[in-house]
Amino acid sequence: AYVGNDFSADNGMIAVYPAGNCTADLAAMTVNVNIPSVQTATAGTFDPAAGAMVAFSRTESMAFKNTTALVKFTLATEGVKSVVLTGLGEEAVCGDMTVIMNEDGTVASVAPKTDGVAGTSVELSAAGDSKLAVGTTYYMAVLPGSFPKGFTVHVKYSADGEMHMVKGYTKAYDLARNFILNLGEFEVRELPTITALSFTADANPGKILSKELYYDATGSGGQWTKYKDAVTPEMTVADGKISGTILYLNDRNLVPSVTY
Fold this sequence. Notes:
Layout: E1 13-17, E2 23-25, E3 30-35, E4 38-40, E5 53-57, E6 65-66, E7 69-75, E8 82-87, E9 94-101, E10 107-112, E11 118-119, E12 121-125, E13 137-142, E14 145-147, E15 151-156, E16 163-169, E17 173-175, E18 180-186, E19 196-198, E20 211-215, E21 225-229, E22 234-238, E23 241-243, E24 257-259
Parallel strand pairs: 4-12, 7-18
Antiparallel strand pairs: 1-5, 2-3, 3-9, 5-6, 7-13, 8-12, 8-15, 9-10, 9-11, 14-17, 15-16, 19-22, 19-24, 20-21, 22-23
């Protein structure tokens, strides 16, 4: 709220809602606001602290304009704590933003602040110990911009938990100011956990050799070089990563033997 008697039509007035982490230059008609990287989920709307609105006027009447783009979605999965959006091209989706106003009170442009701090992910999280509600529509505020490669959406089941992939939106998107991108309803489908993986000769005939040569130092039977059954190497599965060495590889198109 503003209370005062120093208003001048010659100077005009800039207002920002919500008040707080912002600066303004009346002469340049610019406003610097911040889109938080972690936002509090609010049923049916966006986090009031995240969706900054600005106004400029030379009269006693002001019309506020949205500065952000919004991403809208509904969950079909129980127990989700937060949803995380990340640009595939490491685009700035949150952080400090500069808004330039027009004389008529409309927004001329929005862009990441030149010397500001930017983030490449936005997380919308349920407040306190609660979880996001199934069937409820939520919105996250993001910095307007283009996503030539698209973006990904992950969920977390706890505040400090691992991120689980929901979907990759791999086409180009333009999120203009005041635009709402509706992702619709999505469900988290958990991927099975791999406990063991190997490449066997039986599953890959002619690709992984079933025999290997070795040198027999005794030379028994007059043969110094002999064949023996090849040992199929077992890959190591740990911490969500698969590593190891595949011996006797004749072809890169292999069929794995997997245990879940």
